[in-house]
């Protein structure tokens, strides 16, 4: 979960504070940004010189200490790693801590992330290793054990036991993976759950969950799913009348039917990663008089503990009313080995790629055995598909993708035949790092198509299929589906802009100062390219400001320049939009009339209403209300980036996003 910008729904600090001494043992006077120093010869302990300490969220006067400098007898893990070892510090990474709390419910999962045999006794050298899942494989992250402190207290994640450090070190390793502690200040639990399990995540609106919520949650927990929830219907740092914090991630850790004097009651157990600040409504620890109706023996059976530890119980009705979002991470039998997981998914993974003009890859899905669900009157087979784009950070862009499922036929699928299931039904093609499609179909043979909207683009992907029991997937031959039904032929491209190979030559010619294209380089490059094509003369309408926008909108590193990969991604967009411009410039005057603008935008996949169209005409057209060729490219680049930004923040697909002030300024001032 490349790491696109995220909506700051799950971000909350625990309000920890303290006096700080002006001291630091992990700083570099050359930078003033807290860069790591080389190992100290006197100790010989390992120092991670690659840990990114720039722009620390809490940086002034902190002291980097090793656990042996914090307490006399530090331990890596004390009495097993549990959810009670996760107490949030001043860093707003409750989304990550919530995922850790869910992970701790399954020791086998945690053991993979936190390898055994590490500690502060025999063999200790200051070095610790952790493992995270990235694009279908597990990678090792090595760190030192220098941790940020204030007044000899850990300022970030810590355990309830002062001498236990596995959770604080895991947080540091994850920070290194993501680019530093500051990178953890916002996020969603499902991102961390995927990185720590290799699972497949879904995001649900609680209001849309089935009426039989208890059965739904029970089936998820029985399959070993990790579940987190949140309420984003209020301001950060505030809570509702019952103590549920807004924009804060909680873990769902159990569902129980509790015997009471008024009959059985279904309760859900939830944990706040702070280790405090609990629910104060019915069935709560402090005000839950309902527990008087439950025997002490029954309370022990469900492991109910009446203390301020961040864990509490609530009814399903209260869960619906107090939480808005629920994130579920599905795990497979390859990952889970816990005895109490009754119905784990079976996962099949396929690494593939999209190749220009060759159609989409195809995979056979065979469903033979129906679900073991007595409450389901239909004989169907459940499955989950997850399509993850690879290396999106290096590409600097997300492709528009979709998932389709067709009935397998010997003669192929007719171009007039609609898919049985498709992710495009409600939202069309989507620019997401990972796309998940949940489905239920009758037993039979089907074809899965991981599709790409722009068939002239290339990219790599990981397709994962979760099924029950004996249902399987395999790579399919192209003959399984008629190729003309799935990929539309490209319209012929006139010589509006040079080919990709010719553009690469222009890149080398105009970017002589190094392997990067800066705004002035791009201006000179585009001026030459346009002047030698069918739009010769319109290069006079091109401005340096246009090229500045082209660069920053495709710049994934925030350096104000494009490398060759980013430049090629930009060029692919410009050529595609050039083809659209040629098609809709009916009178061939190198400009789009007002009435031609809206259909041209629709052809590019951007639909606008009349009000937005009026704003476009006021801001981007010439005095005669026409849109020049460079202006059209500039407009589409802006709209494309704005839509991608919105979609990257709208991970729940609700059509609404929330951003903080810094994110807003970054989007408007730079991007």
From TrEMBL:
SUPFAM superfamilies: Calpain large subunit, middle domain (domain III), Cysteine proteinases, EF-hand
InterPro entries for this protein: Calpain_cysteine_protease, Calpain_domain_III, Calpain_III, Calpain_III_sf, EF-hand-dom_pair, EF_Hand_1_Ca_BS, EF_hand_dom, Papain-like_cys_pep_sf
Keyword annotations: Calcium, Hydrolase, Metal-binding, Protease, Thiol protease
Any one biological process term the GO annotation gives: proteolysis
Chain spans, region Disordered: 1-34
Active site: residue positions: 94, 248, 272
Molecular-function GO terms, alphabetical: calcium ion binding; calcium-dependent cysteine-type endopeptidase activity
Domain annotation EF-hand: ranges: 572-607
Residue intervals of the Calpain catalytic domain: 36-332
Composition skew (Polar residues), residue ranges: 10-30
Cellular component, GO annotation: cytoplasm
Keyword Transferase: no
Keyword Methyltransferase: no
PROSITE patterns attached to this UniProt entry: CALPAIN_CAT (PS50203), EF_HAND_1 (PS00018), EF_HAND_2 (PS50222), THIOL_PROTEASE_CYS (PS00139)
Family membership: Belongs to the peptidase C2 family.
Designated name of the protein: Uncharacterized protein isoform X1
């Amino acid at each position: 979960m490349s790491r696109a910008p995220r909506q700051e729904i799950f971000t909350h600090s625990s309000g920890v504070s303290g006096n700080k001494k002006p001291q630091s043992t992990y700083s570099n006077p050359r930078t003033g940004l807290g860069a790591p120093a080389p190992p100290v010869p006197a100790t010989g302990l390992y120092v991670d010189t690659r840990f990114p300490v720039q722009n620390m969220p809490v940086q002034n006067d902190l002291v980097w200490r090793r656990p042996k400098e914090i307490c006399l007898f530090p331990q890596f893990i004390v009495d097993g790693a549990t959810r009670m070892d996760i107490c949030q510090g001043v860093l707003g990474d409750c989304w990550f801590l919530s995922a850790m709390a869910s992970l701790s419910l399954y020791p086998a999962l945690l053991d993979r992330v936190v390898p055994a045999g590490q500690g502060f006794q025999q063999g200790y050298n200051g070095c610790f290793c952790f493992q995270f899942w990235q694009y279908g494989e597990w990678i090792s992250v090595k760190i030192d054990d220098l941790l940020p402190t204030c007044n000899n207290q850990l300022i970030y994640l810590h355990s309830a036991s002062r001498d236990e450090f596995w959770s604080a070190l895991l947080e540091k390793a994850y920070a290194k993976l993501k680019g530093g502690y500051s990178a953890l200040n916002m996020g969603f639990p499902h991102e961390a759950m995927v990185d720590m399990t290799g699972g497949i995540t879904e995001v649900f609106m609680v209001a849309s969950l089935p009426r039989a919520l208890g059965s739904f949650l029970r089936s998820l927990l029985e399959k070993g799913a990790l579940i987190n929830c949140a309420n984003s219907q209020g301001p950060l740092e505030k809570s509702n009348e019952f103590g549920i914090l807004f924009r804060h991630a909680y873990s769902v850790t159990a569902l129980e039917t509790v015997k009471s004097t008024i009959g059985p009651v279904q309760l859900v157990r939830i944990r706040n990663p702070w280790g405090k600040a609990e629910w104060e409504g019915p069935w709560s620890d402090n005000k839950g008089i309902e527990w008087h109706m439950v025997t002490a023996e029954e309370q022990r059976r469900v492991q109910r503990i009446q203390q301020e530890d961040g864990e509490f119980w609530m009814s399903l009705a209260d869960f619906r009313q107090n939480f808005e979002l629920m994130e579920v991470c599905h795990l497979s039998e390859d990952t889970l080995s816990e005895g109490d997981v009754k119905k784990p998914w079976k996962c099949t993974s396929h690494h593939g790629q999209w190749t220009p003009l060759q159609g989409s890859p195809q995979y056979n899905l065979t469903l033979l055995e129906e679900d073991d669900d007595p409450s389901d009157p239909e004989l169907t087979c459940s499955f989950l598909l997850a399509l993850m784009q690879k290396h999106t950070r290096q590409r600097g862009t997300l492709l528009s993708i979709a998932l389709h499922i067709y009935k397998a036929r010997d003669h192929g699928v007719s171009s007039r035949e609609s898919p049985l299931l498709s992710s495009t039904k409600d939202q069309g093609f989507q620019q997401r790092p990972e796309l998940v499609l949940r489905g239920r179909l009758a037993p039979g043979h089907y074809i899965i198509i991981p599709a790409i909207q722009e068939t002239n683009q290339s990219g790599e992907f990981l397709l994962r299929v979760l099924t029950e029991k004996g249902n399987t997937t395999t790579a399919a031959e192209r003959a399984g589906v008629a190729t003309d039904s799935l990929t539309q032929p490209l319209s012929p491209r006139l010589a509006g802009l040079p080919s990709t190979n010719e553009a690469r030559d222009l890149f080398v010619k105009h970017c002589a100062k190094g392997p990067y294209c800066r705004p002035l380089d791009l201006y000179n490059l585009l001026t030459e390219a346009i002047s030698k094509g069918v739009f010769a003369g319109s290069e006079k309408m091109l401005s340096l400001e246009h090229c500045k926008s082209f660069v920053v909108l495709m710049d994934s590193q925030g350096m104000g320049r494009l490398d060759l990969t980013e430049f090629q991604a930009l060029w692919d967009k410009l050529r595609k939009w050039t083809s659209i411009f040629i098609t809709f410039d009916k009178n061939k005057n190198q400009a789009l009339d007002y009435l031609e603008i809206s259909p041209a935008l629709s052809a590019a996949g951007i639909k606008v209403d009349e009000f937005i169209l009026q704003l476009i005409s006021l801001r981007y057209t010439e005095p005669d209300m026409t849109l020049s060729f460079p202006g059209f490219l500039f407009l589409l680049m802006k709209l494309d980036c704005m839509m991608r930004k919105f979609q990257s923040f709208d991970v729940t697909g609700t059509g609404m996003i929330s951003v903080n002030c810094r994110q807003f300024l970054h989007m408007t001032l730079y991007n």
